[in-house]
Amino acid sequence: MSDARTDILAGIRRSLKRDAVDAETRRALEARLSGHRANLVPKRGQVTGREKIEAFAQMAEFSLATITRVASADQVPQALADYLKSQNLPAEIRMAPDPQLDAIPWSDTPLLKIARGKPNPSDEVGVTGVFAGIAETGTLMLLSGPQSPSTLNFLPETHVAIVRADQVLGSYEDGWAALRQSNRGMPRTVNFITGPSRSGDIEQTLQLGAHGPRRLHIVLIDN
Amino acid sequence: MHPTSRAFRANATAALSNKTLQQAMANLGFRQKRLEAVARLPEFDALRDQARDIKNHTLQHLDFYLEAYEAKVRDSGGQVHWCRTPEEARQTILGICRSLNARSVTKGKTMIAEEIALNPFLEENGIAPIETDLGEYIIQLRNEPPSHIIAPAIHVTKEQVADSFLEKHAIYGKTRRLTEPREMLEEARGILREKFLRADVGITGANFLIAETGSSIIVTNEGNGDLTQLLPRAHIVLATPEKLVPTLEDVSTILRLLARSATGQEFSVYTTVSTGPRRTEDPDGPEQYHVVILDNGRSAMLGTEFQDMLRCIRCSACMNHCPVYGAIGGHAYGWVYPGPMGAVLTPSLIGVDQAGALPNASTFCGKCESVCPMKIPLPKMMRHWREREYERRLSSTVSRYGIALWAFLARRPALYHLATGWAARVLGRLGQRHGNFENLPLAGGWTRFRDLPAPEGKTFHQAWAERPLRTQDR
Amino acid sequence: MSEKPRVGLFVTCLVDLFRPTIGFAAVKLLEKAGCTVEVPASQVCCGQPSYNSGDKADTKAIARGVIQAFEPYDYVVAPSGSCAGMIREHYPELFADEPALMPRVHHLANRTYELVSFLVDVMGVKNVEARYPGVATYHDSCSGLRELGVKEQPRALLASVAGLAVKELPGAETCCGFGGMFCVKYPEISNRMVADKAADIQATGADTLLAGDLGCLLNMAGKLTREGSTVKVRHVAEVLAGMADAAPPIGRKRQGP
């Protein structure tokens, strides 16, 4: 009795009325894979400069994320503290051990209690950096890694993402190009996050905070 | 799940007079949102063409891409399990669960799991499967199948959710009957949170598999699919071969169409690309990553007139716009996949003798095809099923003889014109009094619900032949 | 001196049996637009009923008759999007396995048009000299709309009818539930669809319903009269040709002596 793998592949070839692809076709297909050429990229993914930042902010808000802009990394801690206060949240956060966040002078706001690492289920606020922002849909691109536990994107009810303007890219294709360029290979998880968690499953009434965070707040360092 | 598609006619009729169902179906509001979302992307139609071409290319070389995909999954530390049948898939998943002494399994939404009736099988084997998508959770409590491929509980009213929660959440100490969707969401969120944290294994489907990197992609709005795959010791992906797409760039093209066509969102809230188990240095993530590739009839669809159906990305636009689905809901279709895509796919998977009614219950209005992001010619394939049924004499005797008689006449114009001339005269005279018929022998199907307008008394050909000649006709 | 385009009128089986007035209205409109019109006597049907029932063999036999009968004409025009769509879009699919016949099939398909879109798009008709006092609403029949792009053309010509106001029908593009055999194979579902359509029509407050396909019109008229509605139902060609006096509305008896 032949194994399932052989049977399935044989079945496919039988249906397509051919044997396994010939050498020339194989080379072409492999080239297609390694070439990973972009298809049509919508205009809105090709914006640059100021237009790109504005597009990112606008689309993020359209997806029901909230966004605060600060002019420099120095202003981030106060902006975060202000946000937490405005939402009646405790000034206690679980922060990703991300070196990108090290440059921020957290000690300037000593009332902000910060624990770093992966989240406990009881953590209410998670703070992460991002790998990139995608302007075309106002999306955050986050990679799993020792400095960015993926569970931190999901377990706390509030997710605050610190994004630098220079991290904002135009399109998904730009995101993949940046990932390939970083030479770290595919991480276990790439999360594209567009707004806070939601469900419409009860009579099609849209509600935020189904299982993931109810709030997604972006602090955009726009220098 | 056990198909009841043979009873489509009776199920559909019952659905039409089911007041609760009709009330719930009135909530289906994806059409307007999709329209607005499509308007926001001027390149939408061009992207549809590219997406169609990407999938067609992949299907033509599916064996190559599967092998390339498998190699990459292995490279990243994952395992691929090939399964021909639902039974093989069930046993494979059970085997993985047993190897981990799994007692509870959380599940992200996967229609393939419905195809193979995974939940009852796991339960029989002492493993508790817990649906985590809110809609799937609701119908799991109600012991019902999904009625829509992305909004599985669309047929359930708020009151029915409250009833189910009251009954099933008592064991968690919840004794109050809830009235607001907000409270219901909170209660479910709290209960499922515990399940997420305790699960031994997490099972998700896959919207796409990427050959270039050996990755699987899921899209959710809730984040349940992510908690399902990140927290337990093992992540099992249940997929079928046609989910394959060559590169990350290719999938980006298709993703621009998916949520837009489904709910009218730009992108689903969580679009997650998973590649293998956690890396040694990762602080979280599953220790094991298994991909179960189930064939269950897909390879047999290749090279046939139904191959285009393999382009489907399960967005649900077709059923959201189908007047038949809108009138009868999803359960009437009797199996996993309802609406136009269900009418085309189901006979391929469970046989046209069981599911033949589905492709017949269509006016071929073409709305489904017009909104399909992958430009799948759905009415054409429904007609192909009708051709297969005709060849195999599966349609009812009455309709076969009726059509055969009509065709006999239609192929003989002189005889046809004789018959219609007679019919026009007789029916025209009989119908003179009211201008229409409330009842007519042999036309009961029509006159049960509407009047039949009376013919004018002569056929056009008769009247044309008798017309007074004008100077220009001489 | 240019020659007048020679049009072969594809009557359609429903117009032939149920409402010849539509055929005459089509002839009048085509002649007014500068065409000569002939009606090949051997035509019966486009073959759609057997096609949609899965009977390709009979469909082909009927289609061969159509190809033959309409060979001599510059254009083939049908007062029906469904029939014109069958010939234009589906005949090439139907005969794809008979390459020898394909040139004739394509020749026919390329010359075939639905009536109103032919008048506007091919003959350049911009307005009609007709009068019809009242408020009409218009239903977009599925095949004409989705297979042939018939949408703006009837509205453009109706706009020129004296005394007529056109009110857009909400859900104008939603199927009325006729679908050929569907309405008798699945009468309950069809009834639901046509009941929804009748409710939409009555909600517009229009006194007249127009469309370009007699199948849809018979279905909607039958439902409206069954519900006791006074909405008058006609084929759009009747109004455009100024022939509303030539026959009572669909499903109603002639008034007066």
Output the keywords.
heterotrimer; A: 223 residues; alpha/beta; Rossmann fold; 2 domains; four-stranded mixed β-sheet; 6 helices; elongated; B: 474 residues; six-stranded parallel β-sheet; 11% strand
Explain what the structure shows:
The complex is a heterotrimer of chains A (223), B (474) and C (257). Chain A is of the alpha/beta class. Helices cover 29% and strands 22% of the residues of chain A. Chain A folds into two domains: 1-37, no CATH class; 43-221, 3-Layer(aba) Sandwich (Rossmann fold). In chain A, strand 5 and strand 6 (139-143) form a beta hairpin. The longest helix of chain A is centred in the N-terminal third of the chain and has 14 residues, at 49-62. The radius of gyration of chain A is 22 Å and the shape is elongated. Chain B has 474 residues and is of the alpha/beta class. Chain B has helices at 8-16, 19-25, 30-39, 44-60, 62-75, 86-99, 111-115, 118-124, 134-141, 158-168, 181-198, 224-230, 248-262, 298-301, 317-321, 323-328, 339-350, 352-355, 357-360, 367-371, 378-391, 397-410, 413-430, 444-447, 460-465, and strands spanning 79-83, 104-107, 128-131, 201-204, 208-210, 215-220, 234-239, 244-245, 270-274, 288-294, 436-437, 452-453. Chain B starts with 7 loop residues before the first helix and ends in a 9-residue tail after the last helix. Chain C has helices at 13-18, 20-32, 48-52, 56-69, 81-94, 102-111, 115-122, 142-148, 152-158, 182-185, 187-204, 214-226, 236-240, and strands at 6-9, 36-38, 75-78, 112-114, 131-138, 162-167, 208-211, 232-235. Chain C contains 13 helices and eight strands. Chain C is α/β, with parallel strands linked by helices and 257 residues long. In chain C, helix 5 (81-94) runs antiparallel to helix 6, helix 5 crosses helix 8 (142-148) and helix 11 (187-204) crosses helix 12. In chain C, 48% of the residues lie in helices and 14% in strands. Chains in contact: A-B, B-C.
Give a brief description.
Chain A has 223 residues and is of the alpha/beta class. Chain A contains six helices and twelve strands. Chain A folds into two domains: 1-37, no CATH class; 43-221, Rossmann fold (3-Layer(aba) Sandwich), CATH 3.40.50.10420.
